Amino acid sequence: MLEIDGSQGEGGGQVLRGALALALATATPFAIRRIRAKRSKPGLLRQHLTCVEAARAVSGATVTGAKLGSTELTFAPGPLVPGAYRFDIGSAGSTMLVAQAVLPALLAQGGAWSLELIGGTHNPSAPSYEFFTRTLAPVLGRMGAPVSATLHLAGFYPVGGGRVQIEVAAGERRRPLALRERGAITGRHAIAAVARMPATVAEREVATATRLLGWPREVGSAVELPSPGPGNTVTLVVEAERVTEVFTGHLDRGVGAEDLAREVARECAAYLASVAPVGEYLADQLLVPMALGGGGSFVTVEPSLHTRTQVDVIRAFLGVEVALTAQGDGTWLATVPPRG
Asked: Band of the pLDDT at 340, cuts 50, 70, 90?
């Protein structure tokens, strides 16, 4: 049984999610110790426990230690069984991170899958629903892994209760990814969404973000989302010929609407100032699907600790080395060998 140290690298949930996805795809049992050891509340929270339960359900895995607060876990997967599944986190934990724990394996296995995920859809420190649909899903489709998602209810902290449906179509032959240039920018969008909050909050955010970026006011829109609880998110979208990047921020207590818009605009401006087509968060999301598929390469910003942690977990399960090479112009080349 493969031994995984949950405190390695970023020392959070990324290690567990990567291990679950790779274990499902390779039928490799593993034991993980010191789960989320570098977080203020170590061990499994509801979101992480749902990741484990989802991975167990789709594979009939044998699991020990799957309980709230657990810092140790063993996971021995069985064969993947395509079908329709429903997973309720029971909190505002991220549905998109639950998807990260199982989706790469489902895409690699092929077949048709339907996942209904209930919880948070717009979470701090997690991919948003818009990132999944506008950024990640199109790139996965180019790799021969067709996936789509539908938002039925938005879920915000602390109420949660969001509902998203993810559909995986029967796959094609996996293709290597080559994403080394962004290409010309073809579209820009500034979207501020509110749920159970005044629409004027979103309007102020759109005005601030477009002004700071020098974008025409008409590329901005203020929208209202159906949700069980209040929430607010700012999403900036940069569409280019070869990739779309999304930057998202969420209103928190003590943070003004203009301050939120200013922070998201700063992240977007930094991306536009670089020539790298792949941003920090997309780099995290691509490595495991690429390693389980046709491999390939992409140019990105300086790899984060999350990205480097993914490289370590991939090495442990697949015995291959993902190369991260500085280009000399502030960008990095990530090269992923195809799965043998």
From this structure: low
